[in-house]
Inverse folding.
């Protein structure tokens, strides 16, 4: 039943051009993925509170709170959501605390790399989070 | 006491001790005289005796005391003053106590010897200190450049992401369009429609390959930026991390590419089965860069412009360690200086062309921080091979 539904993905980046290029570039996945975009972490949290997302991919350098804090918050309020980070900075650099729980896509990444990471994150997350959690959320 | 100079110490010490000594030496015979006069009831008419005693009291004794005191305690006071000055870092021109040959003059000579050696040491230390200061400034500068480079890399990566995504998208779409065009040639004989179709097809082929070349170029820029970013992260030099040695070698080659591309061909033979190595990453990155640059210079010094030299870099798993070799076809290290190349501040280059710290720093890091080994083999005009044996787990603590 789940496999028939499109995978809900939220992309968070404060640079609108990044969101645009990912929207265009990922058009070939539109049958399987439904993409939502947010430029601000607060907006991202609002969206997660109101909607179901299978995956959240967030940039690290964001206004008001960094991406690591954002995905930590999202993981708490929506345990069914798998979270990924993307960044042009090395993990451990200033403003990028290392949290081993989240995989990092290093910018500039290829679109195929993004697809692989998202698919992998969905599979891993389903294995780790019991099915009841998914049902509760739905 | 610290504020007293040598001279004031001598003056103070000598004067105080003299006065006490003179008073004692003068007063004791006087007291003895008075006691004797009283006890034996000597009358004042026995003037000669009294006169003798008085002469002893006020004449001979002080004179004698002065002679004795002026030789020994004053020199001891002086000696003490010299020592005190030296302890406070104020080195006298030379020690001067007495002119005659005796125990004290032996001390004087010994002290002068010590003083000469000490002055030599101070000169060595202060010149090493000056070099260290320069080195510190260099490290500071490097750190600043590192911070900047990290920031710039981050700034570059965002537009690079946009370029990469768009080019990937463009070239994928172009491929699809080209396929469509290929499948739908205009029917009929050669005419204007056929010519337009052919033009469209050829143009699409060109545009597609342009997009693919752009993709490849972007990937190259991304590789350079990543290498630069990885090398620029200085902040973690104090902690050991688990590092992919082969990837680090490739990154070092990327960032030094501009230095060696016209001088040497680089060949790598990196064993694929090497596990992550626990090490101080910035030490190893810096050391690798230095070895590659040294090898390039050694080849350049041969001055053979018609033939490029070779740098071979290999890694190999040897038990619980990795053996890394950097081999060049350069001038080689002259026999005469082979035992000094790991010494701090040893350099054969002109002033300003390097501090001669690279190999010393690498040697100290490999041996002391990683518990590994570094050695080399060099043949005149044949080349040099540096070998580093790096344990997978560090066996010594810093």
């Amino acid at each position: 039943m789940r496999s028939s539904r499109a995978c809900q993905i939220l992309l968070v980046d404060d640079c609108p051009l990044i969101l645009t290029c990912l929207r265009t570039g990922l058009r070939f996945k539109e049958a399987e993925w439904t993409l939502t975009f947010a430029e601000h972490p607060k907006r991202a949290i609002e969206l997660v509170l109101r909607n179901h997302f299978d995956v959240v991919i967030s940039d690290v350098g964001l206004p008001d709170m960094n991406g690591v804090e954002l995905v930590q918050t999202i993981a708490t309020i929506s345990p069914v959501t798998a979270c990924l980070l993307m960044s042009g900075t090395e993990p451990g650099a200033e403003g990028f605390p290392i949290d081993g729980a989240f995989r990092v896509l290093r910018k500039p990444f290829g679109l195929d790399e993004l697809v692989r990471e998202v698919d992998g994150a969905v599979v891993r997350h389903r294995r780790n989070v019991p099915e009841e959690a998914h049902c509760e959320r739905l | 006491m610290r504020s007293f100079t040598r001279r004031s110490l001598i003056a103070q010490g000598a004067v105080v001790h003299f006065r006490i000594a003179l008073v004692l030496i003068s007063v004791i015979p006087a007291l003895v005289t008075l006691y004797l006069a009283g006890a034996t009831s000597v009358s004042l008419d026995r003037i000669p005796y009294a006169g003798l005693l008085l002469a002893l009291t006020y004449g001979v004794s002080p004179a004698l005391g002065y002679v004795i005191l002026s030789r020994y305690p004053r020199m001891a006071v002086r000696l003490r003053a010299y020592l005190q000055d030296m302890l406070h870092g104020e080195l006298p021109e030379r020690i001067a106590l007495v002119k005659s040959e005796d125990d004290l003059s032996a001390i004087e000579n010994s002290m002068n010897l010590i003083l000469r050696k000490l002055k030599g040491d101070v000169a060595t230390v202060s010149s090493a200190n000056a070099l260290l200061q320069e080195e510190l400034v260099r490290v500071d500068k490097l750190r600043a450049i590192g911070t900047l480079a990290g920031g710039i890399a981050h700034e570059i990566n965002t537009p690079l992401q946009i370029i990469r995504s768009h080019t990937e998208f463009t070239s994928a779409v172009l491929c699809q369009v080209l396929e469509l065009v290929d499948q739908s040639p205009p029917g009929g004989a050669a005419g204007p429609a056929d010519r337009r179709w052919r033009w469209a097809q050829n143009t699409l082929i060109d545009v597609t390959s342009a997009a693919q070349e752009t993709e490849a170029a972007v990937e190259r820029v991304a590789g350079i930026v990543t290498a630069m970013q990885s090398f620029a992260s200085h902040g973690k030099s104090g902690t050991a991390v688990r590092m992919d040695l082969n990837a680090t070698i490739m990154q070092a080659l990327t960032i030094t590419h501009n230095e060696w591309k016209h001088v040497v061909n680089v060949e790598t033979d990196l064993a694929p089965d090497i596990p992550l190595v626990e090490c101080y990453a910035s030490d190893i990155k810096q050391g690798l860069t230095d070895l590659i640059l040294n090898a390039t210079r050694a080849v350049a010094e041969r001055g053979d412009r018609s033939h490029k030299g070779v740098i071979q870099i290999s890694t190999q798993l040897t038990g619980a360690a990795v053996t890394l070799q950097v081999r060049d076809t350069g001038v080689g290290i002259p026999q005469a200086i082979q035992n000094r190349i790991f010494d701090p501040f040893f350099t054969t280059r002109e002033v300003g062309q390097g501090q001669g710290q690279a190999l010393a720093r690498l040697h100290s890091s490999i041996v002391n921080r990683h518990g590994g080994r570094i050695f080399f083999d060099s043949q005149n005009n044949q080349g040099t091979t540096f070998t580093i044996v790096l344990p997978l787990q560090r066996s010594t603590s810093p």
